[in-house]
């Protein structure tokens, strides 16, 4: 069971365990906004509903330039697990400009790729193969990328993850 932590301004900050969320609430550092009524927490002194969303009582300043690290899983997730060349299910990633030719490990140079296309392309560029990219690779943004642990969301979190993010 995981809990979404919101800043005092209701912007998403992190995802923590329900135990950590309960400690924040019990120490008056956060208040419960949404609860999961189906799974209570039992203790010697009674039972409590597990918090699903909490909001901090004090504002925590976070850096605006919170960069999303480039990972294999992140590239696959950004591209919806579809090959950037043929559109089939992607299982790996590919450098658009191969590393042997100076290509970097960046969001703009990586694309999800199926094994067949990756082997066919080998050490060439898409232009040399006569291929077109089905999407323009770019750095992902938004609350589901800035907040760690939001890969697997719950329906209750959706309205809090969309707050204040028009980018």
Automatic annotation (TrEMBL):
Alphabetized PANTHER family for the sequence: OS07G0170200 PROTEIN, SLL1193 PROTEIN
GO molecular function, one term: endonuclease activity
Protein name, entry field: HNH endonuclease
Cited InterPro entries: HNH, HNH_nuc, NA-targeting_endonuclease
Pfam families: HNH
Key words of the record: Endonuclease, Hydrolase, Nuclease
Keyword GTP-binding in record: no
Coiled coil feature spans: none
Residue ranges of every copy of the HNH nuclease domain listed in the record: 70-119
Protein's organism: Labedella populi
């Amino acid at each position: 069971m995981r809990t979404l932590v919101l800043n005092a301004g209701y912007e998403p900050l992190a995802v923590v365990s329900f135990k950590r969320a309960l400690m924040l609430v019990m120490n008056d550092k956060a208040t419960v906004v949404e609860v999961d009524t189906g799974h209570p927490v039992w203790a010697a002194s009674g039972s409590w509903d597990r918090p699903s969303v909490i909001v901090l009582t004090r504002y925590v300043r976070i850096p605006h330039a919170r960069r999303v690290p480039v990972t294999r899983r992140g590239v696959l997730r950004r591209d919806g697990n579809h090959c950037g060349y043929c559109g089939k299910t992607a299982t790996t990633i590919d450098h658009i400009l191969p590393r042997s030719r100076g290509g970097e490990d960046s969001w703009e140079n990586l694309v999800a790729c199926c094994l067949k296309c990756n082997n066919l392309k080998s050490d060439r560029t898409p232009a040399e193969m006569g291929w077109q990219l089905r999407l323009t690779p770019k750095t992902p943004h938004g609350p589901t990328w800035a907040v760690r642990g939001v890969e697997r969301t719950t329906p209750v979190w959706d309205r809090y993850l969309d707050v204040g993010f028009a980018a």
